[in-house]
Amino acid sequence: MRSQLCFRCSILCVFPVDSASTVSGLMSIFHEQELTETVHDTNGHGYLATFVGKNGRVAILRVHSHGLVTIDLQCYEEDNIAQLDNLLNALEKKLKVLLNGNITRIKKLPAIVRGANVDRYWPTADGRLIEYDIDRVVYEEDSAYQNIKILHSQQYGNILVLDGDVNLAESDFAYTQAITGNGKENYAGKEVLILGGGDGGILAELVKQKPKMITMVEISFMGSVIDGCKMYMRKTCGNILDNLKGDCYQIFIEDCVPLLKKYVQEGRTFDYVINDLTAIPISTAPEEDSTWEFLRLILDLSIQVLHPSGKYFTQGNSANLTEALSLYEDQLEKLSCPVGFCKEVVCVPSYLEQWVFYTAWKK
Amino acid sequence: MRSQLCFRCSILCVFPVDSASTVSGLMSIFHEQELTETVHDTNGHGYLATFVGKNGRVAILRVHSHGLVTIDLQCYEEDNIAQLDNLLNALEKKLKVLLNGNITRIKKLPAIVRGANVDRYWPTADGRLIEYDIDRVVYEEDSAYQNIKILHSQQYGNILVLDGDVNLAESDFAYTQAITGNGKENYAGKEVLILGGGDGGILAELVKQKPKMITMVEISFMGSVIDGCKMYMRKTCGNILDNLKGDCYQIFIEDCVPLLKKYVQEGRTFDYVINDLTAIPISTAPEEDSTWEFLRLILDLSIQVLHPSGKYFTQGNSANLTEALSLYEDQLEKLSCPVGFCKEVVCVPSYLEQWVFYTAWKK
Question: Which GO molecular function annotation, any one, does this entry have (chains A, B) (predicted)?
Answer without folding.
Answer: spermine synthase activity
